[in-house]
Amino acid sequence: MSAQQKALFLTKKHGDWEVGTTEVPTPGPGQLLVKVEATALNPLEVGIQVRGILVEDYPAILGVDAAGTVEALGEGVADFAVGDRVLIEGSFINGKGTFQQYTLAEAVVSAKIPNNITFDQAASVPLGLATAALALFDQGSAGLPPPWEESGKGRFAGKPFVLFGGATSVGQYAIQLAKLSGFSPIIATASPSNAPYLHTLGATHVLDRALAPDALLSQITQLTSGVPVEIVFLTVQLPSLELPVSVLAPGGTLATVWPVIDDAKRAAAPGKKVAGVYGSANTKATRETGHSLYRSIPRLLASGELKPNRVENLADGLKGIAAGLKKMEKGEVSGVKLVVRPQETL
Ligand SMILES: NC(=O)c1ccc[n+]([C@@H]2O[C@H](COP(=O)([O-])OP(=O)(O)OC[C@H]3O[C@@H](n4cnc5c(N)ncnc54)[C@H](OP(=O)(O)O)[C@@H]3O)[C@@H](O)[C@H]2O)c1
């Protein structure tokens, strides 16, 4: 293996994307060195480039979703071997960003990929799944019992689950987790073109996201037939919280993808809880739920209980990422995860 590799750099805050070379990193204790066969794009990278959030050290290698092959093991790694196919949680620190040909991953947030799943599909899993799972099942967020453990499986039979943003990557994983939890009905908003696919994941009803709030509320009320809605998940920005809060029963929880819940958001939901999430399965606060999730991923994917997002491959390896992020910024990506193959970078 060469000591140098290709990586995609964000040159400076609000800067451009440029492919350059950098050293292949060496795994430390508990880490894997992974040859990245596929990496997925997220709204996170759009936010970092356009809004200048989260990253201060430039040039920066971003990307938090990857799948590939284990090339080397750091000290103390017992559960993986060189040659294993893995999906990994990356992070926006240069050695661990996934927009490069080789990256480091923490073994505790890596999972072996079963044979029924391709690298491209596996790359769609880490951030979307962790965000949905932590928002709904981590004690720091909504805190429901996780359905990948016996105590949570089927636990909410007969209770409704309402999701605004069913076709987002996070939403697609949330629908599947809600199904494993036994929720019924599972009501999601999306563009009508995504309805047939969301039904295959477990949504019982898909409502047109373009409907006026009053029409959506009345349809949701009819579908839940008077059973209190104790959990609503919001994966998209709505003009206000009025609709999701009106759907919720008193004392219910509005789980959101927002990393920070400020006083204004709390005040918009009197008598109800608003929960946020930080979608990493490996922070001090999230690691108990996060590591338990990662241990379950191979089984959930192999059994088909969890399906990865549908993927769209972008050409030109790492060079294709800039155009993909632009499409996402313009809202031109619907119900699929954009994926590139860094080894195809010329
Ligand atoms: N806090 C965290 O750690 C964390 C982690 C991950 C993601 N996030 C955030 O979570 C959100 C979702 O991320 P993602 O990667 O899952 O998104 P994504 O896959 O890029 O979402 C694209 C989808 O959004 C849907 N959408 C847009 N506006 C909508 C609306 N008003 N109602 C219903 N659906 C709407 C579209 O659905 P249709 O095609 O059906 O129209 C589209 O398919 C983003 O804001 C992201 O920044 C936060």
Automatic annotation (TrEMBL):
SUPFAM superfamilies: GroES-like (SSF50129), NAD(P)-binding Rossmann-fold domains (SSF51735). Gene3D superfamilies: Medium-chain alcohol dehydrogenases, catalytic domain, NAD(P)-binding Rossmann-like Domain. Residues 15-340 form the Enoyl reductase (ER) domain. InterPro entries: ADH-like_C, ADH-like_N, ER, GroES-like_sf, NAD(P)-bd_dom_sf, Trans-enoyl_RdTase-like. GO terms for molecular function: oxidoreductase activity, acting on NAD(P)H. PANTHER family: HYPOTHETICAL OXIDOREDUCTASE (EUROFUNG), ZINC-TYPE ALCOHOL DEHYDROGENASE-LIKE PROTEIN C2E1P3.01. This is Enoyl reductase (ER) domain-containing protein. It comes from Ceriporiopsis subvermispora (strain B). The lineage of its organism: Eukaryota, Fungi, Dikarya, Basidiomycota, Agaricomycotina.
